[in-house]
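@channel sequence for tomorrow's demo:
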Amino acid sequence: MRRLRDTRVIDALIAFALAMALVAQMVLRNDEGGSELLVDIGGGLLLTLPLGARRRAPFAVACVFAAAATLSSALGGGLFDGEPPPFASLAAGAVAFYSLGAHAEDRRALIGAGVGVAGLWTAVIAGGHVDAQSFLFSAGLIVATPWLVGRSNRARAQRLALLEREQLQRERAAVGEERARIARELHDVVAHSVGVMVVQAQGAQRMLDLDPERARDALGAIERTGRTALEEMRRSLGVLRRPDADVPLAPQPGMGGLGALVEQARASGLAVELVAEGEPAPLPSGVDVSAYRIVQEALTNTLKHAGPVRTRVTVRYGDDGLELEIADDGFAGRAPNGAPVSAEGGQGLLGMRERVALYGGHLHAAPRPEGGFVIRASLPFAA
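structure tokens (generated this afternoon):
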């Protein structure tokens, strides 16, 4: 709104300045005064004052300019007489037809340019200057050149606006992708932590009367797991609520923290064996985080669906990718309550598939014939 007010003020000042300049020029050129001077002053005001609306109504301003020029010449005015004509009248015409080219839509801009040429040629004829030079001067200098400059600037501004819109769309898409990533991370954190806490709570409940000390340890582990989960949730939700704020984030987990993850699963009662094959090497950051989250989600699913059973986590480092296998000896494709375990899975398996697909890899998740469940994931370093 402020910019709109500023442009209107600027246009009004331009119109007023040209009006005063043209009136002054006509007074200086007409020493005798009389009706001819009045015609020149009136025509000059009609040529210049409408320029105050040159952005809002460029077509109307151009038509008024052409009509005023024709009327002034027909009444014997000198707005376009002399060698050269008054500078202010030429400047007013240039501003009017530049504005027509820069601010009018295509059809109106073309019609307005035609009206301008016709009006100025009529003014030339009415003033008695019927020669090729006068026609070319009025059509080329006053109408065509400013109009073409205006159209060029309009096209450039439209291209810039299109680029800005595309950039804004890309930024919004990037924000959406980042929020989706944060939502996935939040799901992984919550699902894993809650799964661990449920198993630990079940163990504590069973040991409460038999072994209070072990029950106390399990409750302490529940507290620590809950605090960690709450802290990660707080950071993630802070980013979602304040996307432009500078929210301090902890380093993303990676395969370097796999040992701690396995120890946490063991503390929950899961008999986890960790096996590494190949020469460990630094991983691309995205692969590093995704691999960790896949193992985390797989262990969470094992705790949720099979309980504290024997599980083997195998990590194979290759030259062109990383392979993961998480296999448990739990129920043969069935959850502890007897419900079948679907290979399609819920949000956990969907998240795994999405992470793997992002890097052009493959995910296999299915019950094992001998019992239990296996998840195999391949994460290429370069898709």
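heads up for whoever presents: The longest strand covers residues 310-317.
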